[in-house]
Amino acid sequence: MPNAAASFSADLVPPEIIARAMRYPPSAQRVLPLLKHCLEQEDASIYQIVDLIRLDPGLSARVLQAGNCRLHSRHHRCSTIEMAVQRIGFDLIYEIVAHAVAEQVLVRPLVAYSLEADELWNLSVSCGIAAELIADMRGADTRIAYTLGLLHGVGMVAIDQWLQRHQPTIGFFAKAFPREYAESERVLIGCTHAQVGAEVLRGWDFPFEISEPLRCQYDPLESLEHRQLSSLLYAAKWVRARVCFDDHRRPHAPEPRLLAPIDLNLFALERLAAQVRDRLEQVKRDLSLGDDPQPFAA
Q: Of 49-58, 157-166, 227-236, which one has max mean pLDDT?
């Protein structure tokens, strides 16, 4: 196990170097078999397939990356999973899923963050649901918001993979939102998972409207062009922390100035947390059905 209180650090590494070492985030084992089953059905609808893909950060990233590759992009970037699925077609989706199923052995906890695989999944999906609900309230694109929330922690996966190769003794200590792992990351490796995650998405040809808010997830006002989406992600992360943690990581009250671009307050976020908690439990119940994939509400 890594030593979170290590008195030494890795050599400070630019975020783009860490990001370059990562090809894909891992895929959730629970979603893949259901999606593969759905794709094998002759009457499968695009809505069923999109709803399943949306529940897994790894598959979402693979599908969006495929939709944004030069062969398919036609100079127009995919910002949503729906756009990517329509662009690349069911056959390539099946191929992506088949490869992901073959790589299930790579699904593992984030050792440097002391996060189990299920914890990472809960954080990712609850943040996606929260971002989608906030976007719906504010008239923003709900699909882009969901994608942004779902992939908000991709930098943590990249950092963990890099550390296991180069400095496996290093680990990070979690604090309550909004500090989370950022302070420990800066001390030990010289950058945060927000910076690394933005570099990962840029390397995968994600549009700037997703990579930029991810970079600014701890300080939305840093973003000039996408301040509303950055604030939306900040709020969604607070909600997912409220839903997922009831210990020393329970979130502190968010800064009102950082919520100003989306005109929300703490009371509204508490109400959203209750909705997200219910939706997350429904998603888990749906996934437990196993052999009969249905469209999900998330």
A: 227-236
In sequence order, what are the beta bridge partners of 3? Answer: 170
| Residue with more model confidence, 88 or 213 | 213
Residue pair 128/194 in contact (Cβ under 8 Å)? The answer is: no
DSSP string, 86-114: HHHHHHHHHHHHHHHHHTGGG---BGGGT
Instruction: Specify whether the CB–CB gap between 181 and 156 falls below 8 A.
Output: yes
Do 127 and 148 sit in the same domain of this protein?
A: yes
Structural domain contains residue 295: no
Q: Which residue has the higher pLDDT, 26 or 217?
A: 217
- Domain final residue pick, 61, 87, 107: 107
Is residue 298 over pLDDT 60?
no
Do residues 93 and 241 share a domain?
Answer: no
- Calculate mean pLDDT across residues 104-129: 87
Token digits for 291? 């052999």
pTM for this entry: 0.83
271 and 194 both lie in a single domain: yes
Alpha helices by DSSP H, listed for the chain, are 15-20, 31-39, 46-53, 57-68, 70-73, 81-102, 117-138, 142-150, 154-166, 182-189, 193-203, 208-215, 227-244, 256-259, 266-287
Residue of higher predicted confidence among 5 and 288: 288
Tokens representing 193 are 């998972």
Rounded Cα gap, residues 108 and 18, in angstroms? 19
CA distance 111 to 164: 8
Are the beta carbons of 19 and 128 closer than 8 angstroms? no
Please give the backbone phi and psi of residue 115, each rounded to the nearest 5 degrees, phi first.
-115, 130
With CA atoms as reference, report the closest residue to 237 among 114, 155, 172: 155
Residues 148, 39, single domain; the answer is no
Nearest to 121 by CA among 270, 243, 35: 243
Domain that residue 234 falls in: 7-23+108-290
Same domain, 89 and 123: no
